[in-house]
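[job 4471] stage=fold_predict status=RUNNING
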Amino acid sequence: MKDLGTKNLETKRLLLRKFKIEDAPLVYENWCNDPDVAKYVTWQPHKSVEETKELLEEWIKSYESNRTYKWVAELKDTSEIIGSIDVVSKKTLDHGACEIGYCYGKKYWGKGYASECLDAVIKYLFDECDAYVISAKHCSLNPASGKVMQKCGLKYEGTLRGRYVDPDGKRNDILSYSITKEEYKSR
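[job 4471] inference complete, writing structure tokens
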């Protein structure tokens, strides 16, 4: 895989770009402080905008590596930032395998933004970075995320049973999806 890193990507409605420290207040407000968002991800809701700022500082520093693929999604018409998408595992990049993770503020759910972003990132990773396979996972509590994956051509691979514990302490399954470059090209 070619290590090209995070570059600006555009869709019909969105700009996917690198995070800036000035994004911290909106990142905090739009999704990082929301317990409804956090119940589907691996982190707890942020307690302050300062916590979000510290995280963004780490992410911004990570852009020094061309192995970082991390975007904030911004609405073109209003410049409002609505979520993030990134390659969450770098361990398998040498073999062209990318695992994607994404998170959006709940007021943006159900509007097609997640699919639009995922499509753009898949296209970039296959067409420009020469990835071989792209995967994504979601917890069983969040079937809408699986629908996003399916809409973007990823196929269900299997279930990892009881691998996720939600904020209430309840065990949930993780469902895994993927798409190969050949499958993508034949769509």
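[job 4471] summary: The helical segments are 24-32, 35-38, 49-62, 113-127, 143-151, 181-185.
[job 4471] exit 0
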